[in-house]
Amino acid sequence: MDYFPLFLRLQGKPVLLVGAGEVARRKLVLLRAAGAVVTVVAPDLSGIAAEYGDDAQVSLRQQAFAPEQLHGKWLVIAATNDPSVNAAVAHAAEAQQIWANVVDDTEQCSAIVPAIVDRSPVVIAISSGATAPVLARRIRAQLEALIDESVGTLAKLAQCWRETIKTRLPDVSARRRFWDAVLDSRLPTLLKNRRQQDAEQLLSDLLAQAETPQQRGHVSLVGAGPGDPGLLTLNAQRALQQADVIFYDQLVSPAVLELARRDAELISVGKKAGDHKTSQAAINALLVEHARQNKRVVRLKGGDPFIFGRGGEELEALAAEHISFDVVPGITAAIACAAYAGIPLTHRSHAQSVRFVTAHCQNSADTLDWANLAREQQTLAFYMGVAQLETIRTKLLEHGAAPTLPFAMIENGSRPEQRVITGHLSELPEQARKHQVQSPALLVIGDVAKLHHRLQWFNPETVRSENTQPERSVA
C-alpha cells in the first residue's frame, strides 16, 4: 500500500489550515464536522471571515504562512493557489514531524483526504492513493446509492447496547456470533422502515437467546474455487467473515484468504503430491476438536469440496460426532479453468458429454475404465494428472484414442499467472516437460480443446506446439 488507511480523532485537537479560498472552505467544513479546533492562516480572509468570524471553533489569522504556526498542531492542510507556499508548508511540516495534506499535489503530501461516505457513526473512506480521484468519486457514488441512512441508525443502536451486551456476553466469540445473528435478522430492515421499537425488542430477544450457550460449534465446508476470488459465492464470503478458525488447503489462493476476517485463525492443512504434512485423519480430528470448543469453523477447500476433495469423508467424521455442519459449494477446477481458457467442456459439434477424472497416482490410474475414456465425442478433464501424463497418453492410445486428439493443460487456471499449453495427445508428456508444467494444472483432452485458440479471453498466454493449428472459422 502506498498509504496506510487511518481515521484520525481530531475532536478538540488543534489543526492548521493554510488558505482561505473555496477549496480551503470545503476542508474547513470537514474539519469542523470532525470537531477540530482550526486555525486558518491567509493574507486575505475575506472569503470566509463573514461565515466563520464568530465561530469559537475557528481562529482566523490574516497573515502569511510561517513555520512557527505549526507548533502544537496535529495536522496541517495547505489549500492555497500558490505552489511555492504549499511546498513551504509541506517542508516545514516534514521538519516538525506533522502530517501534511497539500491539496492537488500528491508529491508534497504525507497524508491525503479520501472521498467519504458519511453514515455517522459509520464512515467509509475511499482512496486511489491520489492517482485516480475520478475513480474514487465514482466508487463513492456507488456506495452512496448502496448504503442507506439506516446503517448509521444501526450503528447508533449498537453503541447504545454495547455495554449491556458486553456484560451479558463476556466471551468475545459469543458476542461476535450474536452480532452476526443480529445483522442476518430482520433488524436492519426494521430500522430502515423506522420501526425503532420493534428493532430494539428483536435485539433484546436475540440477546436472550445468545445467553443460552450452545453445546457444539459449527463447521462450514466451503469451496474456494480455483483461485480467482471473484468466483466465490456470497455464502462463501459470509462464511469467511464469520469464521473463528479456517483450515485451508494448499490450492486455496492468497487472494481468497484475504477475504477472511482479520482476526480469524488461519491454519494450513494443505496436501500436495509427495508432501502430505497433515493426514486426512488428522484434519478430521482438528475439525472436531475446534467445533467442540464452540467455534465457527470453516474448512476451505480448493474448487468444490465434493469433487475429488474428500469433503464427504470430513462430513462423515463430523456427523459421527454429532457436530452440525453445512456445505457451501464452489466452482470446481474443470468448469472454471476451462471457462477461463475459452474451452467449452461440451459443444454439440465436438462433445456431448464430459468426464471428471482423477489420476494423481499410478494406483488410481490403473482402476480407470480406459476403454470408455478413449471414446470419441466426449471431453476428459483430468485433475491432479501432472505426474501421470505418460500413463494417460499410453492408456488412451492403447484403447483407440487418436494420436492427434487435442489437449490443453491449464496451469494456475483463473489466476493472473494462468498459462495454457496446447498440443496433440501423442506429444502430451513431452510438451509438459518442455514447458515445465507445474501443479496446479488441469488437463483437458478432446476436440473442444482446439477451440481455445479462437475463444481465449483471459490472460491469453498460450504455448502452442508446432503441430497444433488453431481452429478456423468457416465463413
TrEMBL record:
Looking at the record, which segments are called Precorrin-2 dehydrogenase / sirohydrochlorin ferrochelatase?
1-203
Residues bearing PTM Phosphoserine? 128
So where does S-adenosyl-L-methionine get bound?
Answer: 226, 302-304, 307, 332-333, 384, 413
List the Gene Ontology MF annotations in alphabetical order. Answer: NAD binding; precorrin-2 dehydrogenase activity; sirohydrochlorin ferrochelatase activity; uroporphyrin-III C-methyltransferase activity
| Reaction(s) catalysed by this chain's protein | siroheme + 2 H(+) = sirohydrochlorin + Fe(2+); uroporphyrinogen III + 2 S-adenosyl-L-methionine = precorrin-2 + 2 S-adenosyl-L-homocysteine + H(+); precorrin-2 + NAD(+) = sirohydrochlorin + NADH + 2 H(+)
GO process annotations (BP): cobalamin biosynthetic process; methylation; siroheme biosynthetic process
Q: Where is the Sirohaem synthase dimerisation domain?
A: 150-207
Q: Which UniProt keywords apply?
A: Cobalamin biosynthesis, Lyase, Methyltransferase, Multifunctional enzyme, NAD, Oxidoreductase, Phosphoprotein, Porphyrin biosynthesis, S-adenosyl-L-methionine, Transferase
Its annotated pathway reads: Cofactor biosynthesis; adenosylcobalamin biosynthesis; sirohydrochlorin from precorrin-2: step 1/1; Porphyrin-containing compound metabolism; siroheme biosynthesis; sirohydrochlorin from precorrin-2: step 1/1; Cofactor biosynthesis; adenosylcobalamin biosynthesis; precorrin-2 from uroporphyrinogen III: step 1/1; Porphyrin-containing compound metabolism; siroheme biosynthesis; siroheme from sirohydrochlorin: step 1/1
Q: Kindly list the residue ranges recorded as spanning the membrane.
A: none
- Region Uroporphyrinogen-III C-methyltransferase: what ranges? 217-475
Question: Catalytic positions?
Answer: 249 (proton acceptor), 271 (proton donor)
Enzyme Commission numbers on file: 2.1.1.107, 1.3.1.76, 4.99.1.4
Sites where the protein binds NAD(+): 22-23, 43-44
Gene3D superfamilies from the xrefs? Cobalt-precorrin-4 Transmethylase, Domain 1 (3.40.1010.10), Methyltransferase, Cobalt-precorrin-4 Transmethylase, Domain 2 (3.30.950.10), NAD(P)-binding Rossmann-like Domain (3.40.50.720), Sirohaem synthase, dimerisation domain (1.10.8.210), Siroheme synthase, domain 2 (3.30.160.110)
Please give the InterPro entries that the UniProt record associates with this protein: 4pyrrol_Mease, 4pyrrol_Methylase_sf, 4pyrrole_Mease_sub1, 4pyrrole_Mease_sub2, CobA/CysG_C, NAD(P)-bd_dom_sf, Siro_Cobalamin_biosynth, Sirohaem_synt_dimer_dom_sf
Q: Name one Pfam family in it.
A: NAD_binding_7
Question: Tetrapyrrole methylase domain spans which residues?
Answer: 219-428
* Top-rank taxon: Bacteria
- Name the job this protein performs: Then it catalyzes the NAD-dependent ring dehydrogenation of precorrin-2 to yield sirohydrochlorin. Finally, it catalyzes the ferrochelation of sirohydrochlorin to yield siroheme.
| Family from the record | In the C-terminal section; belongs to the precorrin methyltransferase family.
The family database entries (NCBIfam families) matched by this protein are listed as: cobA_cysG_Cterm, cysG_Nterm, PRK06136.1, PRK10637.1
Q: What is this protein called?
A: Siroheme synthase
What is the primary gene name for this protein? cysG
